[in-house]
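User: I'm curious what two different proteins look like when written out as structure tokens. Can you demonstrate?

Assistant: Sure. I'll show them one after the other, since each token string lines up with its own sequence. Here's the first protein:
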Amino acid sequence: MDFSWALRLPREQISVLLAGRLAGAAMLALGVGGSSASTMRHNVQAAGGYLVAHSSAPFFRVLLSVRGIACQVTLTDKDFAPHLVQQPGDSDGEDHTVERKQIAHQLSLAADRVEIHHNQHGGILLRFQIPLFQGQPAPGPEF
């Protein structure tokens, strides 16, 4: 199965809650179990909370990309450009090391391939992958 879904929201805490609920609902609509949908909701809200706290952009974007039996989730703000990723030791005026380690640990409890990047202009990208059929057999070819 291939499926993509994107959402652009104002950088506000209420938007983080909405993004998490919509991401969880999207997973339920795809027929995955409640465990995967709950994990999706929780991780999108955690990542969104991090982005809202550390970004200065007015909006953020959530992208869900389903391929096969996994869903890649990307949250980013409008200022993120991959070619401007900040290297360790570079400074944008703030040190996000402790918070970055905390959110990476929190996301990695139920997600794979967790990435968190800040670029030289204050842009942020969080990416992780969630297995769609946690605790239940994956569907056969007819899915």
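Here's a second, unrelated protein for contrast:
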Amino acid sequence: MGALGGEEVTVWRVVGGARPAAYVMSAVVVVKAVACWFSWMLAPTWAAVHLAGMWTGLATGACCFLWWVILRVRLEIGPQLFVAVNPWGTQRLPLEQVTHVTLGNWGAEFHQTDGFKTTSYALSDMAGYAGKVQGAKRFREVQAALERVRRPA
């Protein structure tokens, strides 16, 4: 049981410079769109509306894309379920189907009893570059969380 009375779930998200960069890029295009609309309010012309509309569309597209690719991506390990929220979809697996976890090119790979594997992009900082493993501490945390939830009560 967690501190609030529910089941305890461990969550990992994208770390490093990707999350702050996504927030900054989103903020820049949103501020530009707001500035264009403010400029239109001071001097209403069709050119100003066109420019403000273009920046509003760009801001909407950029914010949605960055949310989809970076900000919503996460890994959750709960008492009975493993959930990997990746850009292309969400995979939910019962923990009994996960045999072990390894490091892959795009993050942590959870191997399943049927031979398939699920990659968690939230842990993509752990992928190796030039033969070096990054984020070994986070990988150990994931392994420990898996062992903790598998341990009989």
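A detail about the second structure: The two ends are 12 Å apart (CA to CA).
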